[in-house]
Amino acid sequence: MIEVIATCVDDAIAIEKYGGQRVELSSALSEMGITSSYALIKNVLDKVKIPVHVLIRPHSKSFIYSDNDMQVMKEDIEIAKKLGANGIVIGTLDEHNRIDEEKLKELLAFADDMDVTFHRAIDSTESCVESVRTLLKYPKIKRIVTAGGKGKVTDNLDVIRKMVGVANNKITIMLGGGLNKENLQLAIERTGTCEVHFGSGVRENYHYTGNISRELMQEVIEEWRKSNICIS
């Protein structure tokens, strides 16, 4: 599975056209993403047929949320659900950088049967491996996108492999953070997972302001298909 971040309608159209299999829709990629507007969500869903998962993040200050933040997030989940999004991408931490399970449960209660991903907030926790154990308590969570901690995926390959082992196919571990055509095969083979998440790695000039690149998308898909554990 190759998931690519879209920040506008044209991104989403290009991702689908060039072979991406799922869109994560968010805005302000430079801030690690915040929730997109109602109109953007609606128009993306109108334009593409591949699954669209909407990031639910009210601001970029942290992953610690007040009661007011939580109300906004719940309403954003309801909007995404009403508009027909396939899934949501969420993450909640407490002041000790542990997963805030109470707030997580509140958000999951609004998700109904939507596909739920826990985002890279996990990379800010003290132990990504232990955080996987925590998230295993919540069967609504289908996957975790992670770089295995601070830095890029390639900085934390051994940690991610441990995360994959702990997840034991009950939650999918999706690689995300610094992936590109040059390191994709290594990352897949060293970690044992082939769900991958791209942001700048498939954009022109490898920059978050660049358009989705047909050439980079094709090269990434080719590298992904070369892996022994990924089936196209």
From TrEMBL:
Keyword Cytoplasm on this protein? yes
Q: Which domain of life is it from?
A: Bacteria
Q: What is this protein called?
A: PF03932 family protein CutC
- Matches recorded under InterPro entries: CutC-like, CutC-like_dom_sf
- Alphabetically list the UniProt keywords: Cytoplasm
Q: Where is the protein localized?
A: Cytoplasm
Which Gene3D superfamilies does this entry report, sorted A to Z? Copper homeostasis (CutC) domain
Molecular function terms in GO for this entry? copper ion binding
Identify its protein family.
Answer: Belongs to the CutC family.
Q: Where is the signal peptide?
A: none
Organism of derivation: Tepidanaerobacter acetatoxydans (strain DSM 21804 / JCM 16047 / Re1)
Upper lineage is: Bacteria, Bacillati, Bacillota, Clostridia, Thermosediminibacterales
Any Gene Ontology CC annotation? cytoplasm
